[in-house]
Amino acid sequence: MRKITAIAIACIIAFSLVAGILPAKAFADQTRSTVTGKTYDLGEDDKYELSKAQGVTDAASRFFVTGDITSAPATNGFTSFAVNSGNAAIMIDTHFGMTLFEQEDSHEWHIIADKKKVVDGIELSQAIGSGAIVVQTSRDGKTWITVDTETDIYNKQETNNNRNANGEPMGAFYRTTNIQQANGCYYRIIVAYKLEREIDPSKVLFVSVKNTEVKQRLEVYQFFVYDPSVNRAETLNTKTAYEFSDVWRVDSQDGFKNPVLIKSDDPHIDWSVGRFYVSGYTDVRMDGDVPVFLKVPGDRAALWFVLEQELDKCNGDTGIKVNDISSGSDIYFGTPTIAVFGRGALIIRRTDKQNQKERQIYTNYLEASATVGANTRVDLFEEGDYEVALDYQLHYDKPFVFGTTTTKTLTYRIFFKFKVRNGDISAFLRDVDTNQFITNANVAPHGFYIDVANSQYLTMTIKREVLSESLDGLVEDTKFSGVAREGRNYTDEGIYTVTIKNLATGDSVTKRVYVGDRDILLVHMKTGMPISEINERLAAGAYIDDNGQLVDPVQPTEEPVADVQMPEEPLPSPEVTESEVEPQQPVVAVTDAEESPEEKSEDASAAKQNDHVDTKPNMIVIGSVAAVVLVSAAVALSRRAKKKRVGAKEDSLK
Asked: Which of 41, 144, 192, 413 has the highest CB neighbour count under 10 A?
């Protein structure tokens, strides 16, 4: 009854997962959280300046954040979200505000197009139109940097949640970056649009004149996002980190191509905008001129950047500034033309073992993400090959004669490569039935598979051996042996030898596992005993118990025989003289039914003599001998029964 109940419960749970009654893990990680903002009204000509805004009670819930996120305690008064994996997507609720946009009654507030291009002092590339959105970030929640803008938002409802960033689709209105999450980032989103409504007309010379009321409206949303797995209190120790700081001169921002090391007459000689460092590794090896950082469990390889110059006063000279590039591209990374390149663009490309490439572009990096003198964590790195470039431009003003100046703009990049590899061999064998690590004397009755635990740069080979036809050894299955593959189920019977090698360190490990249930091979795997020896011991009377252990037969032990004291010989009878001998009587024939008086006399005399002999010691000897005979018989019967069982097992194996 218990077994039937357990099966029924298991079926109900399985059906619930399929039908959606219980949430599956694949969907449990996705969370949606609405961001609540504030609404402000301004006068018609207030240029959407926040300092002039007056708060109103109208709701502001246009945006929501989604992803593998959880709500966290407020950070400096900002609503906070912890991003547990991946990046958070900032999305627009496309239904919000549509009443204002689609309002047909001119006497009610409704959205009208605005031809202005400024919101709170921020220059836009196009007119506000039906509404504009400005995305800003901050490292401290006080100083804000504009990182993205969008205009005419109500006429772009179909594409607002799948915008492009640097020529690549985001699948969101805006998506947080690794740099922002690693360091913790404050966000401020400003929405601006113009409202109008018709009021009572006025009369001029008895003519009715249409009157309207116009106002500007702002919605402001603020929140904080961070990666909870990163210790933001951690600081960089430049003495133990690996430095990258070589500066190259390139042709222009159109491709940043043809790099050459800067020369002695270059105004950028002997000083650097900043330096990159890699930390969080155990050892470093060189692959040609490319460093390979080896990390072990507990290490977190990270890239850092230290900004050494003020962007408007490089090298202590107000005549040298980091230029704000309106648009640019990087031919090495194959980027499209980036409309807002900004004051330096950081590009990171990762290539995995399958040669799949992933590119991250951080525009306006020096202004938005770096702080002078501070160690800024760029990203955390798993295994892969990395290429990094910081593309930027310097504007030089040099005094000339008669108070004039000469200007020139030169383009540079910091470029380097490195690799990250696991320094250990994190690979495990798992049972196909339970998914548990194989630890029971390396036996998996129905099969196993290899789990490399995200260690991608390992080589794996496998060899399978089976019991020979003569049952006295192992032979290799040459057709099966070769390269092993992660995740593949190995279920054919045999003994497998898996060799795993770390290419970065040259270290290797070998693991053996038996798939099947043959008693002889189980003993071989558990004890390491040669199969020929196992056969010999079985032939000698040993047997294999239910736990797969080889048990030798019990040798019989003889019971010690007690010392028996034999009776002393009877004393000889006294000599009889001839005179004392009675004369012989004549022989008288006696029938079978009747004894002679002489026989009766002799029997009586013998009985009297026997009464003097102790019969107890004789009984002890007889009992001991009988016990030994019984024990020997029992041992012989037990041995014969065990030999029959072993013979039956050998017949079944053959």
From this structure: 192
Yes or no: say if 297 and 424 are a contact pair by the CB < 8 Å rule.
yes
Q: Which residues contact 252 (CB under 8 A, 6 or more apart)?
A: 411
- Six-digit token pair at 596? 């002679």
The mean per-residue pLDDT over the stretch 265-293 comes to 94
Q: Which helix (H) or strand (E) holds 15?
A: helix 2-19
Show the tokens assigned to 654: 């053959």
Burial of 171 (0-12, 13-18, 19+ CB in 10 A): exposed
Please spell the DSSP secondary structure of 311-357, one letter per residue. Answer: TTBGGG-TTEEE--BSSBEETTTT---BS--BS-EEEEEEE-TT--E
- Which residues does 471 contact at the CB level (< 8 Å), separation at least 6? 520, 531, 535, 653, 654
pLDDT band at 338, cuts 50/70/90? confident
C-beta of residue 174 within 8 angstroms of C-beta of residue 363: no
Strand partners, 138: 186
d(CA 132, CA 130): 7
pLDDT in tens, 235-272: 899 999 999 999 999 998 999 999 998 988 888 999 99
pTM of the model: 0.71
pLDDT tens-digit series, residues 413-436:
999 999 999 999 888 899 999 999
Q: How is residue 139 annotated by DSSP?
A: S
Beta carbons of 1 and 7 less than 8 angstroms apart: no
| Cβ pair 407, 396 in contact under 8 A | yes
Q: Are 40 and 54 in contact (CB under 8 A)?
A: yes
